[in-house]
Design goal:
alpha/beta; 18 helices; 19% strand
Length: 554
Amino acid sequence: MDAALPLSLPLSLLWLVLLTLGLSRGLQPDRRADSEAPRVVAASRYGSLWPLPQTVKTSDAWLLLPGATFRIADATGSSSGPSCSLLQSAYRRYYRYVFGSSKGPQEGRRGPAGPAVLTELQVSITSADPECDAFPGVTSDESYELTVDQPYAVLRAPKVWGALRGLETFSQLVYEDEFGAKRINCTTISDFPRFAHRGILLDTSRHFLPIKVLLANLETMAMNKFNVFHWHMVDDQSFPYVSRTFPRISQQGAYHPYTHVYTPADVKMVIEFGRLRGIRVVPEFDTPGHTQSWGKGQKDLLTPCYSGDKPSGSFGPVNPILNATYDFMSKFFKEISAVFPDAYVHLGGDEVDFTCWRSNPDVQNFMEQQGFGQDFSKLESFYIQKLLDIVAATQKGYMIWQEVFDNGVKLKPDTVVHVWIGGGANEEMGKVTAAGFTTILSAPWYLDYISYAQDWQKYYKVEPLDFKGTAEQKKLVIGGEACLWGEYVDATNLTPRLWPRASAVAERLWSAEDVTDINDAFNRLSVHRCRMVERGIPAEPLFSSYCPREYQGN
């Protein structure tokens, strides 16, 4: 990380020097022991950049941004132009972010010659194919270079994905002076993500999340440079996905067939909203477990459980012994491959309870015929293997939870193994990568576990490559995901529970490995959190503090 000169901060940003209420008499001694020592929010030499770019050089020299005349525009020679709707919409979005809260036409204190003015941000896409109409993927180029100086700022990126990240960075460099005018310091930035896969998992089965909430969080993901929305759409509790091929599943399996479902139009909206922000939408349809809601609308899909020699009336995992099961899965995943454009689908495969399979005499007979004995993990592997073959036939890659790997299922070389079990995650990462599989990490980033004090710090301190392995093994780790499971989360509390805690994961996955200064992170994240609040995101506070523009509600 290049050293940077201190930013010249105006009086209006002296709110940063806030004494957190560490001396508050309302803070009980036993709780104080559980929290880290309070910090004074101070100005970071990197301003409020989050996640921190790879290299930053800035100076005390500043420029004024006149809202009435400032423009974000395509540079001469850029391979994108007015027809690139992705960039054009981004220009409008970031103009609003920079100037939308400005209270008036103030242009700052003028000296004899007036302030130096920045009139334009020119965006140049340097490769022949800017990918304006494409969908982002795991190999998308998100690198960019940003130079802020007179007479105009220049943002260069090989692809539109890097331009999106650079626009966010530019917006984070802008601040207000004591007169409400917008300033930016002369700055040079060269940036790219450390990891290609930087995701957020949201669970829309245990509690239904309205489209408005999903879109707001996609917007916030872009503010934090996340690029994967792992959509855990369905589970035991409900099946809100409206399938064109099997509409009865959501009719019977959703909490409500009209109000608590995602229609094809809804799904298309989420995918396009994400695309315009450089975010992949990876759906998860977890089987053979976690499928109780599936069985309500799809006869004979689940295994009948027995009590003694009679059916008990309850059902277990997907029935792996029927040909009809695989006919269904073939048709269903053919639809999924057409609806979701991403190259990958997440197939789950975790937490399969064998109790019901063990009770069913037909399953027992099948086990004997196959020579599985009483090893039901072999039956699970039998099912998973057939499912993987079905999905592979749709030309999709697949992601799976780590149990599928642990059970010895034969996997395609391009399988992505998702490590989530907390105990022994480092050992698991070593095993998976030693076997040659691409890996993503979530075990230390289960944000549904909440605790008192600043738990963002423990997420920030995680090092994804802190496992024993060769350099080649560590290259197989393409990133990670912060997971917010929905047992205790719905539209009322999802966003403040997720942000800015997930922001800590965002920086760990984007910034250089040596970006570990927790005090500097606190100072930058405090301001970044207030920026999210100003943009309408109810991100919860890190500690006792205030924002110049507090959240005003919906």
